[in-house]
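It is worth pausing here to work through a concrete case rather than discussing structure prediction in the abstract. The textbook approach is simple: state the sequence, then state the predicted structure, then interpret. We follow exactly that order.
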Amino acid sequence: MVIGILRLIVFGIDTAFWIPAVMLASLADRDARLAYRMAQHWAAFNLKLTGTRVAVDGLEQLDPRQSYVFMSNHRSNLDVLALVEALWKFQLRVGGEGKSSSGSRGSDGACVRRARSW
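Step two, the predicted structure:
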């Protein structure tokens, strides 16, 4: 339990450092490549810190030059970090959340259309 508390404290401290650094880096370049690389290293560090292992099957079938829509089910607080780690060659963009035509929560067509415009 003590180790868990220490990990949480370190997670908070390094996140408090990285967020402003990533935001400043995003101002420096229009494509936010530097900011995203920094965020990738933040995600990788925090996954290691928490002892989270990421295993990926089928990554070789994805072309980093193509656009894809990846969705997370948010079963943990680390799923976005795991997605960043798993898709290291990709520069992920975050879409919005809305309601589908059936009324359920999730990413709707407008979010997918917006993702294509990036």
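Step three, interpretation. The beta strands are 98-99, 105-106. The chain has four helices and two strands.
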